[in-house]
Amino acid sequence: MIDFTHTVLAWYATNKRDLPWRHTHDPYQIWLSEIILQQTRIQQGWSYWERFVERFPTVQVLAEASEDEVLRLWQGLGYYSRARNLHYAAKQIAKLGHFPDTIDEIKSLKGVGDYTAAAIGSMAFHLPVAVVDGNVYRVLARYYGIDTPINSSEGKKLFQELAQSLLPPSKAADFNQAMMDFGAIQCSPASPQCSSCPLMEGCEAFRSGIVSLFPVKLRTIKIKTRHFHYYYIRFQSQVAMRRRSEGDIWQGLWEPYLEEENENGWLLNHLKDQGLAFSMNTLRTNVKHILTHRIIMADFTLVDTNKKPSLPDEYIWIQEKDIQDYAVPRLVEMLFESVNHQ
Q: Active-site residue numbers?
């Protein structure tokens, strides 16, 4: 009979990924890596982690930074609530005076849930708590043939208890990282390496020929499509921009003038009503930008005016040369690229 824990640890000893945050027990650097790698591939997140550690070498330095600076450094990673939570949590830690070192205290940090707390706790403080992420769900569901949906309350409880029962308390950090690496490399989502898997003989999904069916997940997300029309309004090297407000995507990031589907045509009529001379140049149409819960279809238009038009109060005028000082979502970056190449 296969000893699951021993086998996974033995595999890890030979196949573990060499990642910089694994060469430290500094909870700040470990926490930073975990937040960056939420919803982000390691290949992409690695360089961001290095830039954050270089720019904000301690949690105190991060806490004292402006939100705009944090968002600018985060630009391109998406899911910007992670950056805002990171900044808020840094202030929590600075106020506390030290990095929290119990699971409950770590979970009290903004943006830190069960998985992240277990990862930080085990790797920084050797706390014997099992992590359960997508990789762990997949490995356990396939090996034990568990068809309970992983995004159900019952499934979350079941997998957490199972992972905890397999965790060797004296090697919590190694086992947690081993499970994550095993799921990412050996038992991957689309092309698992079953023929060379050391767990193959005990794997229920492999024996039944249904590896691709695990893990089971309830379908709960409805994808919504939104239509954005961005106007890059320029007057004498100044551009109209606004910061996006709370309660919607990209909170706190900047964007040029925007009309959504139900507002189409307002700007054109408004410029005409003001008697301005202007030109409109269509840069791109039907740009598809995919987010987790929605798809955005966008059009980009460059507008040059002979006078500064009046716009809603939330818009300000900035110098084009300073535009890189403002954190923007990837879709707006694409608009800027279109302007630069026109």
A: 34
